[in-house]
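Re-running N-ethylmaleimide reductase to confirm reproducibility after the cluster update. Everything else is unchanged from the original entry.
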Amino acid sequence: MLLTSYRLGNLTLPNRLVMAPMTRSRAVDGKPTAATATYYAQRATAGLIVTEGVHPNAVGQAGPSMPGIHTDEQVEAWRVVTDAVHVNGGRIFAQLMHGGRIGHAEVAGHQPVGPSAIAAGTDVFTPTGLKPAPVPRALTTQEVAEQVEAFADAARRAVDAGFDGVELHGANGYLIQQFLSTSANRRTDGYGGSITGRIRFAVEAVGAVADAIGPERVGIRLSPGGEIQGIVEENVPALYSELLKALPDIAYVHLLATVDDERLMALRKAWPTTFILNPGGQIGPHESTREQGERWLANGADLISYGRAYLGNPDLVERFRLGLPLVSTDRETWFQSPRGYIDYPSYQH
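Result of re-run:
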């Protein structure tokens, strides 16, 4: 099943493997580099590539050396990347990731913003090393609407840059999940309190992006109940059931396996379009396997996303096809290192 083709929106994917979004922190002045183009082009045999998180505006930058897509120069730099992937036969979505309270004034020159003035209680990356996450400035109701529009503007720029679509990052403790979370969102306006209030930002952001570029080009990534970067969510089954009901019929939802199989299956049944499952959860200790992917396809998932397995195995599709061993990677080279990026070869027979 993993190696069979699949129709996603207007795209025909040659297989059901998705290269999951992974922060690599190798941008220069907020722009991807020639090495970025090589990195994604090397992995173009994936059914779909979803890029590392790309900030939709300056205040959304979560960490150093992360790319954005809110200036003309950034769009031009990304066009080199999308061209390289397309020339090599691939398909690529940009992941739009607003850090919200996960950020630091040293990173982007702005105090981070969030649903409420509540610090994450974790460390964040800065140019001078890990530092405690600062208390964010709570967005006004008007500013929440401006952040929604920032996602739509970034989506338009992504299409201008040649991306086949975009994925909104609603997982792993960033801005969209901060609104969903009872620990990060203590608002008393229409964006907090009840489940209806807490899902509103996600629904509006997805709706604005779908209106901007077409729903068939839009996905969202979610980590139901995932506790990372200070996130706590209450009544997870109801929260995500209501969220999926309220979202427009976009191309896909992309779930991390952060709850048990029963809850994941219930969400699969509740979602009408493509369902992507990442079996590794939140940065698991091992690369996910082909067997895990096949199991979830049998359980109703349509596509399977692989993160760590794609770091050291640009030819992951071929390795799965032929039953070849996978290369593990050194965590010390995941971010910013000159090594561990484009220097992993395809399997040598």
